[in-house]
Amino acid sequence: MDKLITKFLQNNQLLSFGVIDDDGVYSASCYYAFDEKNISLLIKSDPESKHIKLADKNPKIAITIARDSKKLLLIKGVQIKASFAKSNNDEKEIYYSRFPFAKLGTGEIYTLKILWLKYTDNKLLVSNKIIFAK
Q1: pLDDT surpasses 90 at 125
Q2: For the whole model, what pTM was predicted?
Q3: What does the alpha-carbon distance between residue 8 and residue 74 come to, in Å, rounded to a whole number?
Q4: Helices (DSSP H) in the chain: which residue ranges?
Q5: Which of 18, 95, 110, 123 could cross-link to 62 by cystine, CB 3.0-4.6 Å?
Q6: How many domains does the chain have?
Q7: Rounded CA separation 4/2 (Å)
Q8: How much of the chain is helix, strand and coil, in % rounded to 5?
Q9: CB contact set of 60 (below 8 Å; sequence gap of 6+)
Q10: Which tens digit of pLDDT belongs to each residue from 10-20?
């Protein structure tokens, strides 16, 4: 994975993701930790929440992470295709090392395995996008 993508994912913490429901698409936002070794994003959420139930039913999800700015050259972000799964103990440790306070709340840790990613950084010029694919 390109160093610019890795740095972007490490320096952000909030993602939005879309899952399929009976009426179309349902979206949610979650804090995440980046697992660089396994090229995954780790989230915590209630297993009874609608977005987790839907992701469990259909594990193909879409993710966006964006840095908002009114200045065109400061816009950065990623669009991701990922697969959803329950996390193992090593992944849980990564999440809790980034968000230790999250141990106080309820919920489970889940893994969003990155399958495809497009990185946009307008400082690189609009025509320059970086693609990662497994």
Answers
A1: no
A2: 0.93
A3: 13
A4: 3-10, 50-57, 89-98
A5: 18
A6: 1
A7: 5
A8: 30, 50, 25
A9: 20, 81, 82, 83, 84
A10: 999 999 999 99
